[in-house]
Amino acid sequence: MALIITDECINCDVCEPECPNGAISAGDEIYVIDPDLCTECVGHYDEPQCQQVCPVDCIPLDPDRRESREELMAKYERLSAT
């Protein structure tokens, strides 16, 4: 399951540099996560780093993008191969 950033985002800029896949970028009003690049840090860390540093807890799992740990690992492996 990819993560999303909700509109509670305060644009504090701490999540973007923590993402090992480069999935987080500045959107029009708040930061956004590219679900095609988000692996929830599977393959890099035990927990999503963006969630760990977010001061307002505005990065939940995206219920519309359900992925198993195996699917996230496969995505990580595809991303790492490029």
Descriptive notes:
- This protein has two helices and two strands, in the order ββαα.
- β1 and β2 form a beta hairpin.
- A two-stranded antiparallel ribbon has the order 1-2.
- It is globular and about 30 Å long.
- The protein has one domain (16-81): Alpha-Beta Plaits.
- The protein has 82 residues and is α+β, with helices and mostly antiparallel strands.
- Helix content is 22%, strand content 7%.
- Residues 1-29, 31-64 form the 4Fe-4S ferredoxin-type domain.
- Keywords: 4Fe-4S, Electron transport, Iron, Iron-sulfur, Metal-binding, Repeat, Transport.
- It holds the Pfam family Fer4_7.
- This is 4Fe-4S ferredoxin, iron-sulfur binding protein.
- InterPro entries: 4Fe4S_Fe-S-bd (IPR017896), 4Fe4S_Fe_S_CS (IPR017900), PSI_iron-sulfur_center (IPR050157), YfhL-like (IPR047927).
Count of discrete structural domains: 1
Q: How many distinct helices?
A: 2
- Based on Cα principal axes, name the global outline: globular
- Written as H for each helix and E for each strand, in order along the chain, the element string is EEHH
Terminal Cα span: 21 Å
The radius of gyration computed from the alpha-carbon positions, rounded to a whole number of angstroms, is 12 Å
* Largest beta sheet: strand ordering: 1-2
